[in-house]
Amino acid sequence: MAGPNLELFKFGMYLFFPLAVMVHYGDPEWYHRNVLPIRDQFWPKEESLYRPPRTSDDVRTALDEMKQKRLARRQERLQLDQAQAQSANTNTEATEPKVISMLEDAARTNQRLV
């Protein structure tokens, strides 16, 4: 076993090291010099944070906004579907005579379409 001097040294280190760390990093000058300049890189701005509704009126307004957004997306989707359906109808109308004429030509010449 080592002597009492080693135990005293270890005890001193156990006390000194955490206290030295707290004094060094707890210094307000160190904080202002090293933390404040880069703080915005790690944390978002306070204004951009999401704040959940806290009162029943806030909840109702948030639900109304969500409903309006959902209805607007649905309306856009329906308009897009209608536009695609109309363009598909015009494309099929333009290709139907071609397909019919190809079938008639194949029937005349007794060829089989693959």
UniProtKB/TrEMBL annotation:
It is a single-pass membrane protein. Residues 1-28 form the signal peptide. GO terms for cellular component: mitochondrial inner membrane. Residues 66-93 form a coiled coil. One of its GO terms (biological process) is mitochondrial respiratory chain complex IV assembly. InterPro entries: Pet100. Keywords: Coiled coil, Membrane, Mitochondrion, Signal, Transit peptide, Transmembrane, Transmembrane helix. One of its GO terms (molecular function) is unfolded protein binding. The keyword Transferase does not apply. It is found in: Membrane; Mitochondrion membrane. It comes from the Eukaryota. PANTHER family: PROTEIN PET100 HOMOLOG, MITOCHONDRIAL. Belongs to the PET100 family. This is Uncharacterized protein. It comes from Moesziomyces aphidis (Pseudozyma aphidis). The lineage of its organism: Eukaryota, Fungi, Dikarya, Basidiomycota, Ustilaginomycotina.
